[in-house]
Amino acid sequence: MLPVECVIDESGITAARGRARLAIRLPWYRSLPLSTVRVERLAIDGADIPLESVRFSLNELNVTLEELEDCTDDFWFVLDSAYLEFPASVEPGSPHEVAVTVSLFPPYIPGMKRANAQSAKLIAGEAP
Question: Is 69 helix (H, G, I), strand (E, B) or coil?
């Protein structure tokens, strides 16, 4: 899989206190403003996670998925991992099937939508 097709970061999923944290990558070749990023689906072990319960975290920023639209001055750089944090019963060391779909709307290509879906079997790590 090419780097611009990868959504799930190799550091995977971690668990702490009833929440899970999934590392994701920007599936694009250039940095983008967060206002052009949409998380359209997140599922664990075949069950969709309600997107209103998911938070997006990147560097010092921690927002709901809905709030991403307002993040016009915050950029996701191609070398940075972001995190999706959500309620889930995930125990460190347990295996999980994770699926995520991230869509991008590059501002310099009017009308373009690029949807990237990826699923992976991951072993949950312990949150730092």
Answer: helix
Collapse the DSSP code of 94 into the 3-class scheme (helix H, G, I; strand E, B; otherwise coil) and give the result.
Answer: coil
Q: What is the mean pLDDT of residues 14-24?
A: 90
Q: Going by CATH, does the domain composed of 3-126 fall within 2.120.10?
A: no
Residues near 110 by beta carbon (within 8 Å), at least 6 away in sequence:
none
Q: What is the pLDDT of residue 3?
A: 62
d(CA 90, CA 87): 9
CA angle in degrees (0–180, nearest 5) for 41-46-50: 40
Closest CA to 26 of 100, 105, 86, 104: 104
Which pTM was predicted? 0.92
**Left (φ > 0), alpha (ψ -120 to 50) or beta: where does 18 sit?**
left
Cα–Cα separations (whole angstroms), residue 87 to 11, 37, 43, 84? 19, 21, 11, 10
